[in-house]
Every structure is written in structure tokens, then in C-alpha cells.
Design the sequence.
């Protein structure tokens, strides 16, 4: 199969469309859609508490990741992508994580973010 035909096949494939919808829902951040997405993903994947804590700890240590693939590499094969997507959706829904326009992931939970708290302390009051 040529590269052009592969690209044509992948462009409209259901998995690509589903992935784009997933990212757009996370970036859009509408609570009703996020809540529905998290419920659907939890039924399919059901991540363990240990997995969720592992991801949160990584974010507390690194604050930002360039992509979901980068985060998955940092987990060193201890988690599958669908489980990670479920955890990411949950963290976005809980306002602990934000997905940027370039699809990078940034930890925004002030309780676990020393860099952010330091900036808040430096900021002038309004």
C-alpha cells in the first residue's frame, strides 16, 4: 500500500475521528461533555487508584509534558494508552490538568504545584 493511500485511509478512519473528538472535548473543557466522556471511559477502561496516583505524581514532579505520548513514555510501559486517556480526562474534569492548543499537558492543581504557588506568592494583589 502506498504512503498516499495509507494517509487517505487513516485520514477518515473512525479511530482518527474518535481521537480528534477526544482531544477537542478535553481542550474545550465543557463540564457536561467532560463528565459524560469520563463516565464512558471509566466503564470501558476502569483505571486503578494506583494508576491514577502514579500519573498525578508524575505531573507533580514534571508539571508539563509535550504530549500524551511523552507522558506514556515516562510511565515506562507500566500503563496502556486507553487507561492513560481515561485518567487524563478525569484530571481535566477535576480542573487539575489542562490540555493546551498544541496538545501539551500542563498540571494546574495549585495544591501540588510548587512552581505555581511560588508565582502566586510573588504576584501583586489586585
Sequence:
Amino acid at each position: 500500500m502506498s504512503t498516499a493511500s495509507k494517509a487517505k485511509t487513516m485520514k477518515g478512519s473512525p479511530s482518527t475521528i474518535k481521537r480528534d473528538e477526544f482531544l477537542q472535548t478535553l481542550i474545550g473543557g465543557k463540564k457536561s461533555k467532560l463528565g459524560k466522556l469520563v463516565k464512558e471511559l471509566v466503564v470501558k477502561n476502569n483505571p486503578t487508584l494506583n494508576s491514577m496516583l502514579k500519573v498525578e505524581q508524575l505531573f507533580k514532579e514534571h508539571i508539563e509534558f509535550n504530549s500524551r505520548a511523552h507522558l506514556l513514555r515516562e510511565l515506562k510501559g507500566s500503563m496502556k494508552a486507553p487507561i492513560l486517556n481515561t485518567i487524563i480526562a478525569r484530571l481535566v474534569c477535576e480542573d487539575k490538568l489542562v490540555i493546551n492548543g498544541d496538545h501539551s499537558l500542563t498540571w494546574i492543581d495549585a495544591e501540588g504545584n510548587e512552581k505555581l504557588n511560588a508565582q502566586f506568592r510573588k504576584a501583586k494583589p489586585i
User: Anything to note?
Assistant: The chain has a mean pLDDT of 79.
